[in-house]
Design goal:
seven-stranded antiparallel sheet, globular, 39% strand, mainly beta, 351 residues, 28 strands
């Protein structure tokens, strides 16, 4: 799709929307105000969008994280008010989310024991060391057990039963599921512009095209060991608590819905970027964050005059965090002349 003979390939689409999701219709009302709809069996997603806004997981808040003890294998309690964790269907296979000072940590639950949650490794191990951790947090903005159907109680929450091909949602006040626009994000990447360092993609422009409805599935199995910039520690068994600082060059990056690497003279102008379960734009990120497998190498890339909202990660991430990003062994890997201007950001990086 690259331009030729000095010309640019222009994709102009005022009013056009490119979606990475599937439209959900045919909602039926069940008990306790919960509605359900059928989706293809095996559909995998962590993100439901209703009338342009992200729904939250079915979840229940833990009253006080200090009521729990934290070990290398999981978390336990003695206070009987938490015994519902042993008696609620679906807790094994659900996850726990810890919102701290500058980290937002997610850990899958492997099994439930006698007043104990046994957590999946190595997501739990990696969430227990470093800074602002599960057990040694700098600030506490809440802990939730989430993503189990039995926890679906409040408006704006959902649960996807992938095996049964059924999605459940409890509407917010005023929402009409007969007319609501509902989408499950199923793709992680909508657009990938990527060549090779010796043959980069080039001279491609998008004008007034909107993009929406993605998801990010990795936390379902690996958790999310959040660090600064939204980068995260991957599942790596060789790290030990004594050398946390040495992990920094090995952190991974959340993928963007729109990815640009090994490319030059790329323009995205105008358009809306919304309802994305990972990042928005990933420009010259590390290789792990690109569907093409090739990272970095972005030059003369422009993102201008866009409107960003309801994006779960960073709206725009330019550059990488690994060693090749800050000390590229090949000059062609260097990111350069990236322009981000005139964009509007509203209600992003939060759920």
């Amino acid at each position: 799709d690259s331009g030729r003979n000095g010309f640019t390939v222009n994709w102009n689409g005022p009013g056009a929307l490119i979606s990475g999701g599937i439209r959900i219709t045919g909602w039926t009302q069940g008990s306790n105000g919960v509605w359900s709809a059928s989706v293809p069996a095996g559909t995998r997603s962590r993100n439901l969008y209703v009338n342009g806004k992200a729904a939250n997981f079915a979840r229940r808040k833990l009253a006080n994280r200090k009521d729990f003890s934290y070990t290398s294998t999981g978390m336990s309690w003695t206070n009987g008010q938490y015994d519902w964790l042993m008696n609620t269907a679906g807790i094994a296979g659900a996850e726990v989310r810890f919102i701290n000072s500058f980290t937002d940590r997610w850990s899958p639950i492997q099994s439930v024991g006698n007043r104990q949650l046994v957590m999946r490794q190595y997501a739990w191990f990696n969430n227990m060391w470093g800074y602002d951790t599960v057990a040694k947090n700098n600030a506490d903005f809440g802990v939730w057990v989430q993503n189990a159907l039995a926890l679906l109680s409040d408006g704006g929450q959902f649960y996807l039963d992938s095996s049964a091909g059924k999605v459940y949602y409890k509407p917010l006040a005023g929402e009409d599921m007969n007319t609501a626009a509902t989408y499950l994000g199923v793709l992680e990447c909508i657009v990938s512009i990527s060549g090779k360092y010796d043959n980069p993609a080039h001279d491609i422009a998008f004008q007034d095209i909107s993009f929406a409805h993605t998801t990010w599935m990795k936390p379902a199995t690996m958790g999310y060991v959040d660090q600064q910039t939204g980068a995260y520690i991957g599942e790596n068994t060789t790290y030990t608590p004594s050398n946390f600082e040495s992990t920094r060059p090995h952190w991974l990056q959340m993928p963007g819905a729109i990815q640009v690497s090994a490319a030059r003279n790329i323009v995205f102008a105008g358009g809306n970027y919304t309802q994305m379960g990972g990042g928005g734009f990933g420009i010259g990120n590390d290789a792990n964050a690109h569907a093409s497998g090739t990272g970095l190498g972005a030059s003369y890339v422009t993102v201008a005059d866009g409107y960003f909202t309801q994006i779960m990660g960073n709206s725009i991430t330019a550059g990488g965090v690994q060693a090749d990003a800050h000390h590229p062994p090949d000059a062609r890997m260097t990111n350069s002349r990236i322009t981000i201007s005139g964009n509007i950001f509203y209600n992003t990086s939060a759920l």
